[in-house]
Design brief:
The complex is a heterodimer of chains A (467) and B (263).
Chain A (H helix, E strand, L loop, with lengths): L7 H9 L2 H23 L4 H17 L1 H14 L3 E5 L2 H14 L4 E4 L3 H6 L1 H7 L3 E4 L2 H9 L15 H11 L9 H18 L2 E4 L3 E3 L4 E6 L3 H6 L4 E7 L3 E2 L2 H15 L7 E5 L13 E7 L3 H7 L11 H4 L2 H6 L10 H12 L1 H4 L1 H4 L6 H5 L6 H14 L5 H14 L2 H17 L5 E2 L6 H6 L2 E2 L6 H6 L5
Parallel strand pairs in A: 1-10, 2-3, 2-4, 4-7, 5-8, 7-10
Antiparallel strand pairs in A: 5-6, 6-9, 11-12
Helix pairs in contact in A: 3-12, 9-10, 16-20
Chain B lengths: L15 E4 L3 H6 L1 H13 L3 E3 L9 H5 L3 H15 L4 E4 L2 H14 L4 H12 L1 E3 H8 L8 E8 L3 H7 L3 H7 L3 E6 L14 H4 L1 H18 L3 E4 L2 H13 L5 E4 H5 L13
Parallel strand pairs in B: 1-2, 1-3, 3-4, 5-6, 5-7, 7-8
Helix pairs in contact in B: 4-6, 5-6, 5-8, 7-9, 11-12
The chains are: A alpha/beta (467), B alpha/beta (263).
The structure holds iron/sulfur cluster.
Iron/sulfur cluster binds next to helix 14 of chain A.
Protein name (chain A): L-lactate dehydrogenase complex protein LldF
InterPro entries (chain A): 4Fe4S_Fe-S-bd, FTHF_cligase-like_sf, Helical_ferredxn, LUD_dom, LutB/LldF, LutB_C, NagB/RpiA_transferase-like
Keywords (chain A): 4Fe-4S, Electron transport, Iron, Iron-sulfur, Metal-binding, Repeat, Transport
Chain lengths: 467, 263
C-alpha cells in the first residue's frame, strides 16, 4: 500500500539499501532462529504439541460465541467492566472514554500489537493524553517517532549503537552509554516516575480465559506489571480471537508461544489479571476494563479462519527470507512478515495491500515453524487469486498469462512458438550466458541467464535423438 | 508406502511411467530430461515422454489466475492419468500436480477426483527413484566436492530430503559438503524473482555466499528454476561453482554445467 514512504516497492528498495537495517535484522532474526531451533530440538514431540495447540485454538473458535459469553460473565463477576468494540474506531473511543472519565493526563502502555492495529497511539495523542510506552523496545521507537517493525521486538530494525545515540539525545542525563545493562537502567530511570504517576495503564492480552474471566499477559521486562498494577485504572485491549476455554489451554499455548518467539521455556512474567483490586488486596487497579475488539475477526471467521489461530509469536517473521531482507516497515501495515501479509488485506483492504501476498516466494518455511500450523502460503495464494478475480492485477499481466495459457494448451502451437522464440533468444547469448533478457529485465539486472538449448527436449525426443 | 516393484520379484511387469519433463527443462536444459529418462529406465521402468506435454500451470496458479491454471491442469491430467506414475524432475512441478491440482478443482467433484487420482501417483524424480523403486546408481563416479540445496517445494510439500543424499552417496568419489542455510529459500519463487527482483537478488546473494563458503566444486539440487537462479547469481558474482541437477550427476551425464554450452 502507499504510505508516506511511497509504495511497497519503494519502501522495500529503501530497506534493501540500508546497511544498519541489515545488521539489525541479521542479528535479531538470526538469534531468534538459532534459539527457537534449539528449543524445538529439545522438545520430545514438537509436532504433537503443535497439533494440540492448533486444536485448542480451533476448539475455541468453533464455539466462539459460547466462550466469549462465558468469558464476559466470569469477567463481570470478578468486577471487570467489559466493552465490546466492532471496529478500530469504537475500540479507540472506548479507551479514550475510560481515560477521560478517569481524568487521565498520562497513560502508560505496555506493548500490544492490537493497540498498533487499531491506531491507539494516534487516538491518544488526538485526545491530548500523554502516552508513555514502557516496553523497552516500544520506548525506543517512541523516542525515535517510529512504529514497530516486528511483533515481538518492535525495535528489531535498530542496532544497539543506534539506541545508544537515541538515549543520549532524549534521556534526561544525556549520557552516551554503550553497555546494554546501562542502557536498560537509563530507560528504567527515565520511566520510573511515569510508572507511578500515570492515572491509567493500558495493556494488551495474550489470552482471554473463558472459565475464569481472567486475561493473561506474557512479558519479559516486568513493565507490564508496573503498567497494570500501580495506576488507578487498568485498561486491557484484546482481539476477541484471544479467547481460550481454560487456564490449562492458555498454559499449553504459552509453552509453544514462548519457545517459538524467543526459544526460552518461559518468559520472565506470566501474569493472570482477574478483576480489580479486592478488599484486602495490597495492590491492583481500582478499575479494570477490558475492551474486546472485533475489527475484522468475525469476517475472518468466514474468510480466513486459520489465521485466527495466530498467537503472534513472530516465528514466521524470523524465518521469512523476505522479512529478513526488507524488515517490518516496508510492509506498511501494523503487522509485517508472512502473518502481516495475510492480515493486512483484511484490515486495510486488498487493493492497496495487494503487493504483500505477492511479495513472497511461497517457500513454506513460515508454515513449517508456525506453532499453530497456519497454512500461510495457502492463505497468501488465496489472496492472489482474489486479487486476480477482483481485477486488481495489471491488464498486461492478465493478458500475458491468458495468452501464455492459451498457447501452452495447444501443444502444436506451443512447439511452433518455442521453435521460433528459442533461436532468437539464443542469439543474445555469449559464452553460454545471456546478460540481458528481453521482457523480463528483472532477472538479468542481478543474474545471468543460461542460453537456451538449440533444440527443446521434446523436439529432440521427437527426432529420436539421445543428445 | 508405495509398492516397490523391485521387491515384488523380477517377473513383475515394469511400471509404465509418464515422464513430465517440465517446461523449463524442455526449453533450457534437455540434458536433465535425458538423465531422468536413463535413470528411470535403469530403475526398471517403462518410460514414455508424452508429446503433448507443455507446462503444469504453476506460474498461473501462483499468480492467482485459476482459470488459466485449470486449463493447463486439465491438459496434464488428460495426458498422464492412464500411466502408472507421473514422474517429474522437479519438486515444485510435482507438488503442483500432487498437492495443488486437487485444491484447484475443489469446487468440481469430478475433476477433483481425477486430480486426486493423478496426484497420488505423481512423484518427484529423486524421491521416486529412492522410495518407490529402491534404486541406487551403480558404477557412477565423480571426483569432486558438492553441496546440495534443498529446493523448497520438494522439501516441504513432498518431503524430499534424504532421498537425493542417499542416491548421491552411491556416486564414487563424490564428497558432499553441508551448507549453511541449505533449507532456506534461494529467492527464486517463480514469477517472484522478476516481479520483486531486488528482494529476490538480496536473497540469492546471501545464498550464493553460503554456496561459495562451502568451497564445493559443484552445487546440486532437484529443481531447475532454483538452480537457474543460483547459477545465474554465482556467474554474475564471478564464482566458479558449477551447477547441475542431481539427476545429471546420477545418470553420469554431468559433462557441461549450467551455462557451459556443449562445444
Ligand atoms: S502466523 Fe504462526 S508463526 Fe506467524 S506469528 Fe502467528 S502464530 Fe506465530
Amino acid at each position: 500500500m502507499t504510505t508516506a514512504l511511497g509504495t511497497f516497492k519503494d519502501r522495500a528498495r529503501k530497506a534493501l539499501g540500508d546497511k544498519t537495517l541489515k545488521t539489525a535484522l541479521d542479528r535479531t532474526t538470526g538469534n531468534a532462529r538459532v534459539k527457537r531451533a534449539a528449543a524445538v530440538a529439545a522438545w520430545p514431540d514438537f509436532d504433537r504439541a503443535r497439533a494440540a495447540a492448533a486444536a485448542i485454538k480451533d476448539h475455541a473458535l468453533a464455539h466462539f460465541p459460547h466462550y466469549l459469553e462465558q468469558f464476559e460473565r466470569n469477567a463481570l463477576a470478578s468486577g471487570a467492566k467489559i466493552h465490546w468494540a466492532r471496529d478500530a474506531k469504537e475500540a479507540c473511543a472506548a479507551v479514550i472514554d475510560i481515560c477521560r472519565q478517569a481524568k487521565a493526563k498520562t497513560a502508560t502502555r505496555s506493548k500490544s500489537m492490537l493497540g498498533e492495529e487499531i491506531g491507539l497511539p494516534d487516538a491518544l495523542a488526538e485526545a491530548g493524553i500523554r502516552r508513555v510506552e514502557t516496553d523497552l523496545a516500544e520506548h525506543i521507537i517512541q523516542l525515535a517517532g517510529e512504529t514497530p517493525s516486528h511483533i515481538i521486538w518492535p525495535a528489531a530494525h535498530r542496532t544497539r549503537e543506534d539506541v545508544s545515540k537515541l538515549f543520549q539525545q532524549h534521556h534526561r542525563d544525556h549520557l552516551l552509554l554503550t553497555e546494554v545493562e546501562a542502557m536498560v537502567a537509563s530507560a528504567r530511570h527515565e520511566l520510573r516516575d511515569d510508572f507511578f504517576g500515570a492515572e491509567v495503564g493500558i495493556s494488551g492480552a495474550n489470552f482471554l480465559v473463558a472459565e475464569t474471566g481472567a486475561i493473561c499477559t506474557i512479558t519479559n521486562e516486568g513493565n507490564a506489571e508496573l503498567t497494570t498494577t500501580p495506576p488507578r485504572v487498568h485498561i486491557v485491549t484484546a482481539g476477541i480471537e484471544k479467547i481460550v476455554a481454560t487456564t490449562e489451554h492458555a498454559l499449553q499455548l504459552t509453552r509453544l508461544l514462548v519457545r517459538s518467539a524467543t526459544g526460552a521455556d518461559l518468559t520472565q512474567y506470566t501474569t493472570f489479571h482477574c478483576g480489580p483490586k479486592r478488599a484486602g488486596d495490597r495492590d491492583g487497579p481500582e478499575e479494570f476494563h477490558i475492551v474486546l475488539v472485533d475489527h475484522g475477526r468475525t469476517q475472518m471467521l468466514e474468510e480466513m479462519p486459520d489465521m485466527l489461530r495466530c498467537v503472534r509469536c513472530g516465528a514466521c517473521l524470523n524465518h521469512c527470507v523476505v522479512y529478513r531482507k526488507i524488515g517490518g516497515h516496508a510492509y506498511g501495515g501494523a503487522y509485517p512478515g508472512p502473518m502481516g501479509a495475510a492480515l493486512t488485506p483484511i484490515f486495510d483492504g486488498l487493493e492497496p495491500s495487494r503487493d504483500l501476498p505477492h511479495a513472497c516466494t511461497l517457500n513454506g518455511m513460515c508454515k513449517q515453524v508456525c506453532p499453530v500450523d497456519i497454512p500461510l502460503p495457502t492463505l497468501l495464494r488465496d489472496w492472489r487469486a482474489k486479487s486476480f478475480r477482483q481485477g486488481f492485477e495489471s491488464p498486461a499481466l492478465r493478458r500475458g498469462l491468458a495468452l501464455w495459457a492459451l498457447v501452452a494448451s495447444k501443444p502444436r502451437l506451443y512447439r511452433a512458438a518455442l521453435a521460433l522464440a528459442l533461436p532468437l533468444l539464443r542469439r543474445r547469448g555469449k559464452d553460454g550466458w545471456i546478460a540481458a533478457l528481453p521482457f523480463t529485465p528483472g532477472w538479468t539486472q542481478s543474474r545471468d541467464f543460461p542460453t537456451p538449448a538449440k533444440k527443446t527436449f521434446l523436439a529432440q525426443i521427437e527426432s529420436g535423438e539421445q543428445a | 508406502m508405495e509398492e516397490n516393484a523391485n521387491s515384488g520379484g523380477a517377473r513383475q511387469a515394469p511400471p509404465k511411467v509418464g515422464l513430465f519433463a517440465t517446461c523449463l527443462v524442455d526449453m533450457l536444459r534437455p540434458n536433465i530430461g535425458f538423465s531422468a529418462l536413463e535413470l528411470l529406465r535403469a530403475a526398471g521402468c517403462d518410460v514414455e515422454v508424452p508429446k503433448a506435454q507443455t507446462c503444469c500451470g504453476q506460474p498461473a496458479y501462483n499468480s492467482g489466475d485459476d482459470a488459466s491454471a485449470k486449463r493447463l491442469a486439465r491438459q496434464v491430467i488428460e495426458i498422464f492419468e492412464d500411466f502408472d506414475y507421473l514422474v517429474a524432475p522437479s519438486g515444485s512441478c510435482a507438488a503442483m500436480i500432487r498437492v495443488h491440482y486437487p485444491e484447484l478443482f475443489h469446487a468440481d467433484p469430478a475433476m477433483r477426483e481425477r486430480a486426486e487420482r493423478l496426484g497420488a501417483k505423481t512423484f518427484e524424480l529423486l524421491s521416486f527413484l529412492a522410495d518407490v523403486r529402491g534404486f541406487r546408481p551403480r558404477g557412477v563416479s565423480c571426483k569432486a566436492s558438492a553441496t546440495y540445496h534443498d529446493t523448497c517445494s520438494g522439501l516441504r510439500e513432498l518431503g524430499v530430503k534424504a532421498q537425493p543424499r542417499a542416491l548421491l552417496a552411491a556416486i564414487e568419489g563424490l564428497e558432499m559438503r553441508p551448507m549453511e542455510g541449505e533449507e532456506t529459500c534461494c529467492g527464486f519463487g517463480g514469477t517472484f524473482c522478476v516481479k520483486y527482483s531486488e528482494i529476490s537478488d538480496a536473497i540469492v546473494t546471501e545464498k550464493a555466499e553460503n554456496i561459495v563458503a562451502t568451497g564445493a566444486d559443484l552445487l546440486l539440487g532437484g529443481d531447475l528454476g532454483c538452480l537457474l537462479n543460483m547459477a545465474g547469481k554465482l556467474r554474475r558474482a564471478g564464482a566458479s561453482t558449477r551447477v547441475f541437477h542431481a539427476a545429471e550427476l546420477l545418470a553420469g551425464r554431468a559433462l557441461h554445467a549450467i551455462g557451459e554450452e556443449k562445444p
